[in-house]
Amino acid sequence: MQFDSHIDNNGLTLRLHGRLEFTDHERLREMVAQMSRMEKGARFTIDASQLEFIDSAGLGMLLILQEEAQDRQLTLVIRGVKGGVRRSIELARIDELMTVEP
Predict the structure, then answer these.
(1) Where does residue 96 rank: exposed (0-12), middle (13-18), buried (19+ CB within 10 A)?
(2) In a designed cystine with 11, which of 42, 68, 83, 92 is the match (CB 3.0 to 4.6 A)?
(3) What local confidence, expressed as pLDDT, does residue 42 receive?
(4) DSSP for 79-91, written as a single string
(5) Would you say residue 1 has pLDDT above 90?
(6) Which residues pair with 75 in a beta bridge?
(7) ∠11-93-81 over CA atoms, to 5°?
(8) pTM of the prediction?
(9) What distance in Å separates the CA atoms of residue 17 and residue 59, rounded to the nearest whole number?
(10) Which are the contacts of 46, defined by CB distance < 8 A and separation ≥ 6?
(11) Contact status, residue 68 vs residue 101, Cβ threshold 8 Å
(12) Can you tell me the distance from the alpha carbon of 31 to that of 29, in angstroms, rounded to the nearest whole number?
């Protein structure tokens, strides 16, 4: 999985590309580090529109990001999930724990 980040007036956006799976656990630290640049109350968006696959470890990483966002008093939103990634998020009921936008 690759990701790039962008900060603007709407907050921080991380765009995920490819597959989010167990082998990406080191990248999670980089994503959490990006959060430390944000002020309390800011919006932290994960753009998953280019994410092709997510496994159970990837779903766990989303939960860790949610917890980190809460600890930093950020609002986490996942945007653009589709296909198998959307089905995985719905089956894991992650959409009940965090905001998932079309």
Answers:
(1) exposed
(2) 42
(3) 94
(4) E---HHHHHHHHH
(5) no
(6) 43
(7) 50
(8) 0.90
(9) 15
(10) 13, 14, 16, 62, 65, 76, 77, 78, 79
(11) no
(12) 5
Tens-digit pLDDT profile for residues 54-69: 999 999 999 999 999 9
- Residue type present at position 6: H
Pairwise CA distance, residues 46 & 63, whole Å: 12
Task: Give the mean model confidence (pLDDT) for residues 33-41.
Answer: 89
pLDDT digits (tens, 9 = 90+) for 79-96: 999 999 999 999 999 999
**Paired residues of 12 in beta bridges:** 7, 44
On the CB side of 90, CA atoms within 13 Å amount to 9
